[in-house]
Write a structure and sequence with these properties.
single chain; 221 residues; alpha+beta; Alpha-Beta Plaits; four-stranded antiparallel beta sheet; 9 helices
Length: 221
């Protein structure tokens, strides 16, 4: 029984290894200036009196309700994400209006015991055992190919996608709204949904007016 509890603890540590850090984002002070310019594009002049009638939050809600989210493209966030699998990043890079810089297994090796265990496997010890054996076999094959003189960049073909990777991601505020609507939903895959919610919480903390509706929908409920 003690061994089983120890195994569960180690598994949970692996699952909780995902880390999302905000490396940089647009300064919030710029946002009021952006909204002034946005209002100018609607009224054919740089109108600055709108904020005496409406708050930043109310005007932002208006923009979202009108479907006029173009101004949010001038807001950008850069995240450093670690402790995730290449299964996740294969989905992430499908969001093409973004910039990425990812760990290369051509030049670096993953750690033999550092890999993601999918959340649905957590309560299925037989499944976890099979999964870990496959991961370990993949690693053994990877090292054996190198022993045979195969270059690391070619030996990596046998590495399972569950191994940890890290990636730098830059997205604009509008694309992030689209990303959250797709990846925070219940039918999204577990790992990327966890990532999306962590990113949403960070975005809401920096620009609450832009992300309040999505935060309420996907984080609070």
């Amino acid at each position: 029984m003690d061994a089983l509890l120890k195994e569960e603890k180690e598994v949970n540590i692996m699952v909780q290894a995902m880390k999302v850090e905000l490396a940089d984002c647009t300064n919030y002070d710029f946002y009021k200036k952006l909204l002034i310019l946005t209002h100018g594009t609607r009224s054919n002049r740089k109108e600055e009196s709108w904020h005496s009638k409406k708050s930043i939050e109310d005007f932002t809600k208006d923009l979202i309700s009108w479907g006029h989210e173009g101004p949010f493209e001038h807001i950008k966030f850069t995240f450093f994400v670690s402790g995730i699998s290449r299964v996740l990043t294969h989905q992430l890079v499908r969001h093409r209006i973004a910039s990425y810089l990812q760990m290369s297994n051509r030049h670096s090796e993953p750690l033999a015991t550092a890999y993601v265990i999918p959340e649905p496997l957590l309560n299925n010890h037989k499944a976890i055992g099979m999964y870990e054996r496959m991961i370990e076999q993949g690693w053994d094959n990877y090292k054996t190919l190198q022993d045979y003189g195969v270059r690391r960049e070619d030996a990596r073909y046998v590495l399972p996608p569950g191994y940890f990777t890290h990636i730098l991601v830059t997205m604009n505020g509008r694309e992030l709204r689209h990303f959250f609507q797709l990846r925070c939903s219940k039918d999204a895959q577990d790992e990327i949904r966890t990532l999306a919610k962590k990113m949403l919480i960070i975005c809401y903390g920096k620009f609450p007016a832009i992300y309040e509706d999505l935060y309420d929908k996907y984080v609070l409920k």
